[in-house]
Amino acid sequence: MLSLRNLHARVGEREILKGLSLEIPAGEVHAIMGPNGAGKSTLSYVLTGRPGYEVTSGAAELDGVDLLTQAPDERAARGLFLSFQYPLEIPGVPALTFIRTSVNAQRKARGEAEMSAPDFLKRARACAADLKMDFDMLKRPLNVGFSGGEKKRMEILQMALLSPRFMILDETDSGLDIDALRIVSEGVNALRSPDRSLLVITHYQRLLDYIRPDRVHVLAGGRIVASGGPELAHELERDGYDKFARAA
Amino acid sequence: MNLAEAIRLRDSSRLPSRRDEDWRWTDLRSLVRTLPEPSPSLDAARLGPGPFEGICETVVTLANGVGPVAIEVSAGETRTLALRNVSRGDGSHAAHLRITVAAGARLTLLESHEGDGGGLSLLSLEVDLASGASCERLVIADGGTDAISLVDAEVRLGAGSEWAQTLLTNGARRQRLETRVLNPGDGASVRLDGIYVLSGRSHADQTSSVTHSGPQGQTVQLTRGVVDDQARAVFQGRITVEAGADGTDARMAHNALILSDRAEVDARPELEIYADDVACAHGATVGTLDAELLFYMRQRGLPEAEARSLLLASFLGEVIDRIQCAAAAGRMRAWLQERIWGSGE
Ligand SMILES: Nc1ncnc2c1ncn2[C@@H]1O[C@H](COP(=O)(O)OP(=O)(O)OP(=O)(O)O)[C@@H](O)[C@H]1O
Ligand SMILES: [Mg+2]
Question: Which of the ligands is closest to the CA of residue A46?
Fold first, then answer.
């Protein structure tokens, strides 16, 4: 599904991804762990097309289609979603309005019919209930004045309503309390299916107890330096990144 | 310097120039070397619909400066009235209109400035609100890209009266909307809001001055605008609290977004306070659309133009939210949306 080959990318003058390769087949959940500043968020921005993140060589394909030549909104319409490490606030635009506009923009780009307002509202209510969010929060401007944990929950709500096919979660667990972590994880697991894949960036094993990964990768110094099964996460939790940092 | 005189006498040396402090950003003298011929007459009955069409029955039209010279709202009466100031052709004309609102009366004034051609027009309003009277003045000023359009309002308030104004404009070749309000205090309140959406080479100047001459008056002011291409916006807002006008509450805010390197915003907010126990504040910001925020919105699937338009509509829409007359607010919001989404594509 997602295929990254020898990806090099820089921000400004600085090279941050230095030959990153990764294959994530359909239906699988892969986790990326790695020290602060390793390039994890950079990878998520490169994949989603953030301006200023320049790919100097290598390839990134989603279902065999080159991602790198597409605008961020085209990538989104193809089913790529990023839950931001630091979600942004949109003053003056109610969450519901924003999400409905997004859903319909994606549908339009794919040549599908718009979702009607009542249908959308029904789905939004159901998703909010699943994530134990007060529906009134969705009437407020998106993320404005929300707590860190509320913003993360709002990211997952948007993800559920957009129903993407490839999902990147960048430290979705940070800022969530113990109950919220469980609720949000259940929300994410509900989206798992044979034709969807997930890339989970995290520092903590705990999230991976809820969202069980098929593979775990270590990202250090801009490359994947080790890969393994779920047990690798336990190993990292116990031993830290020392030996990998040296390898990188 | 006297605008009406300059136009009547066709004497351009009487036009304001950059040397006049209040006109330094809207210099007319260097623009108008010779004043155009007087405008020909225009058949008011043959104009198409105005931007507030259908909201109220009474429509007063000034066609190339010709029309009624006075509007009176008598005591206790409640009226909604459309005032159309229509200018066609390349001539020049000036009109003067006196509006009086008697004690306890309410007037909703739906004012439109509709221009095309390359002429020069001036409308001077002189407004008196008696005690306890109220007036909401809602203005759509679409000057036309080649015209010079000047609108001047002198407003005198009675005790406990209420003046609420919202200007909505996309500018003209040169456009100036000036409002001067005398607030005697004693519970009198003023709202002076404005929106500008400018593109191309258009110019819009929103200048205001409020003088608080007695205690316990209120003024709130919120102006927001967006400039693109090579457009230029001017905001000058002065609030003067005279000696003895104690307990005055005055708040002014001006926020602008600049969307292009060649666009310009000139802002001069001024508070002059000579009284005691006064609550005054002013805030001014000039910025650009947040690139990180635009990326976030695009990641959710919004094309760039749509993301920009959504941000602009919400930024400017907060000024519309403060309008009392719902029907007119709907019309102004639609007018605004058309300009934002139309230019964004
Ligand atoms: N806009 C930028 N300008 C300059 N350097 C940047 C920029 N963005 C990221 N970097 C640098 O790139 C490196 C990788 O940053 P990135 O955010 O990808 O790390 P990360 O692995 O996500 O770290 P964390 O675990 O702390 O979230 C860091 O050294 C960071 O300082
Ligand atoms: Mg990060």
Answer: 1
List per-residue pLDDT tens for chain A, 248 residues long.
999 999 999 999 999 999 999 999 999 999 999 999 999 999 999 999 999 999 999 999 999 999 999 999 999 999 999 999 999 999 989 999 999 999 999 999 999 999 999 999 999 999 999 999 999 999 999 999 999 889 999 999 999 999 999 999 999 998 889 999 999 999 999 999 999 999 999 998 889 999 999 999 999 999 999 999 999 999 888 888 888 766 55
Q: Residue type for A237, please?
A: E
| Residue A196 to residue A187: CA distance in whole angstroms | 14
- Number of C-beta neighbours around residue A74 at 10 A: 18
Exposed e or buried b per residue across B269-283, where buried means at least 16 C-beta atoms within 10 angstroms of its C-beta: bebebebeebebeee
Q: Is B321 on the interface with A (CB under 8 A)?
A: no
Q: Which atom of ligand 1 is nearest to the CA of A203?
A: 25
Q: Which residues from A are below 8 Å from B298, CB to CB?
A: 49, 71-73, 76
* Pairing status of strand B189-198 against strand B218-227: parallel
Chain B residue closest in CA terms to A168: B299
> Which among B292, B299, B310 has CB closest to A72?
B299
Separation of CA A191 from chain center: 13
Domains of chain A: 2-91+164-247 (3.40.50.300)
ipTM of the complex: 0.96
Which residue of B195, B299, B319 is the best one to mutate when testing the A interface, meaning the one whose CB has the most A CBs within 10 A?
Answer: B299
Ligand 1, atom 7, lies closest to the CA of: A11
For residue B125, CA distances in Å to A172, B120, B170, B185, B224 come to 59, 17, 21, 22, 24
Q: How far is CA B278 from CA B184, B216, B268, in A?
A: 15, 9, 21
CA–centroid distance, residue A178 to ligand 1 (Å):
27
Distance to chain B for A248, nearest Cα, Å: 30
Residue A14, ligand 1, Cβ within 6 A: yes
The secondary structure of chain A as a DSSP string is: -EEEEEEEEEETTEEEEEEEEEEE-TT-EEEEE--TTSSHHHHHHHHHT-TTEEEEEEEEEETTEESTTS-HHHHHHTTEEEE-SSPPP-TT-BHHHHHHHHHHHHHHHTTPPPPPHHHHHHHHHHHHHHTT--GGGGGSBTTTT--HHHHHHHHHHHHHHH--SEEEEESTTTT--HHHHHHHHHHHHHT--TT-EEEEE-S-HHHHHHS--SEEEEEETTEEEEEESTHHHHHHHHH-SHHHHHH-
Does A192 touch chain B if contact means CB atoms closer than 8 Å? Answer: no
d(CA B144, CA B165): 22
In this structure, are residues A139 and A170 in contact, taking their beta carbons and an 8 Å threshold? no
Rounded to whole angstroms, the Cα distance separating B223 from B235 reads 8
Length of chain B: 345
Q: Domains of chain B: which residue ranges? A: 36-290
Q: Is the dihedral of CA A112, A118, A120, A126 positive or negative?
A: negative
